[in-house]
Amino acid sequence: MAEPSPRLESPAIADGLTEDRWLGGRLTLLQPKRGHRVGTDAALLVATAGARQGRIVDVGAGVGAVGLALAKRSESASADLVEIDPALAALAERNAALNGLAAQARVLRLDALVPKERREAGLAQSADCVVTNPPYFDAATVRASSDVGRARAHILGEAGLAYWIESSLAMLAPQGRFVMIHRPEALSVILAAIGNRLGAVALMPVHPAVGASAHRLLVSGVKGSKAPLRIAPGLILHGPDGRLTAEADAIHRGERLIDWGG
């Protein structure tokens, strides 16, 4: 989860924002006090993507946490932060500057699901890595939050998850890597959307505690690879005492990448 900034008198407070230290202080993030906030899912996505070089596209970037964290790992990496919400896109721009990453990151205020907008932004088949944390729920199955930002972050539009994935894969260059976090219940949709577009597909279930069913699924694959699908050992977030396991704690602090094994 995001760690509170020690600077309690931040002027951002007056704007309905908080200024938080995230990933063990590796990033400083301005984000809304209310609505969707950066937390465990984003940390897992960063750890899953690992140390990337080249062009990274963060689809549905929000305030820019994941893309900026990956850009910060390597001076040879650049990040395109794709976000449809103007307010969040503006925060992503501020966060890029706040973390000294303005030269490595650009914010694209567009709808990633519209091919014309992707083409005009130069995103078609251009990315060495695409990372994404799509909304988890279908509008027909859950009641939307009254907070517009939270609702947009959590509920898919009419196009659905499959089209979100297909649109993300359309941005990948040959041999580019796709990385996503979602719910295990969506596995059949995820695999159908990937189809033969990716190889070396790896799946890792994430469990909230020992003995609990997985509540998240990490997905990775390479465009054009012929390697078979594999399922990696699961990641446990909390021990019997309710605290983060050593591995999960290191991931939250940005000190450890996901070990896919094999």
Overall description:
The N terminus is likely disordered. The longest helix is centred in the middle third of the chain and has 13 residues. The strands form three sheets. Strands 4, 5, 6, 7, 10, 11, 12, 13 and 14 form a nine-stranded mixed beta sheet that branches. With 262 residues, the chain is α/β, with parallel strands linked by helices. Helix content is 27%, strand content 29%. The chain is built from eight helices and 14 strands.
Outline the secondary-structure elements:
Elements lengths: L2 E2 L12 E6 L4 E6 L7 H10 L4 E6 L5 H9 L3 E6 L3 H13 L6 E4 L6 H6 L6 E6 L4 E2 L9 H7 E2 L3 H10 L2 E11 L4 H8 L3 E12 L6 E8 L6 E2 L3 E4 L7 H7 L10
Parallel strand pairs: 4-5, 4-7, 5-6, 7-10, 8-9, 11-13, 11-14
Antiparallel strand pairs: 1-2, 2-3, 10-12, 11-12
- Helical stretch tally: 8
> What is the first-to-last residue Cα distance?
29 Å
Under CATH, the homologous superfamily reads: Vaccinia Virus protein VP39
From the spread of the alpha carbons, the general shape counts as globular
Q: Note the run of SSEs as H and E.
A: EEEHEHEHEHEEHEHEHEEEEH
Helix content: 25-40%
Q: Report the portion of residues in β strands.
A: 25-35%
